[in-house]
Amino acid sequence: MTRQLDGRTALVTGGGIGIGADIAATLAEAGARVALTYLTHEPHPALVGRITAASGAPPLCLRLDATDEAAVTATVDEAAAGLGGLDILVNNVGGLVRRSPIAQMSFELWRTVQAVNVDSAFLVSRAALRHLRDGGRVVNISSISGFAGGSAGSTAYATAKAAVVGFTRGLAKELAPRAITVNAIAPGFIEATPFHDTFTTPEGKATATAGIPLGHVGVPADVSGPALWLCSDAAAFVTGEVVQVNGGAYLG
Predict the structure, then answer these.
(1) Phi and psi (nearest 5°) for 116?
(2) Tens digit of pLDDT for each residue in 199-214?
(3) What are the tens digits of pLDDT across the range 55-107?
(4) Catalytic residues
(5) Which of 9, 152, 201, 207 is most deeply packed, by most CB within 10 A?
(6) What are phi and psi of 190, to 5 degrees?
(7) What CATH number has the domain bearing residue 142?
(8) Are 27 and 20 in contact (CB under 8 A)?
(9) In a domain, 250, yes or no
């Protein structure tokens, strides 16, 4: 049986855990050969096994600081060589880094948050464009925070994730002549991720859940499904768009 992504190759950054890991596995289960990068969360053997069983080949697992220009260029080149070119890029690297109100925030922390979330998408995308085939797909992971402003102490993160949306729309126009689509996904509260394990208290989780019309938080699979759709031929005429995945917590 032909699967949606048979014969295609995909690079997923930040693919060792959480949303990125589930996207990498879902793309593999749809037939893609997968490379993933990680920095602090090395892929668990269960994830490697899931991808290997689905695609018939183990994923290329490459350690990468996606804010390091030289490292990004070398790692993307390595991924493309190992896969035989690229058809799909998922820019999933990102994070809040640390909560801080703007009045007390150091410029160093501000720049770090922008680098982790925005510079990483720019650097990886630029490096990948030398390998990405015409008709390819780029999916950037933004956040509900980029639209709703984030929670206490996360203004820098909200700013960065809003910038990811602008980057998505600008790049979509640049790459349209090559039939490469560029879209974003803006997750809301997604459980079982390092983000909320680190930065959200039980009380914060309860408050966030109460504000979700569907009545529950999401899981990584709620994001990987839309990602698969955006990477497939079914979304070939969709570009420059943002898919909100938040259970109705933000409608806009």
Answers:
(1) -65, -40
(2) 778 887 888 899 999 9
(3) 999 999 999 999 999 999 999 999 999 999 999 999 999 999 999 999 999 99
(4) 157
(5) 9
(6) -115, 115
(7) 3.40.50.720
(8) no
(9) no
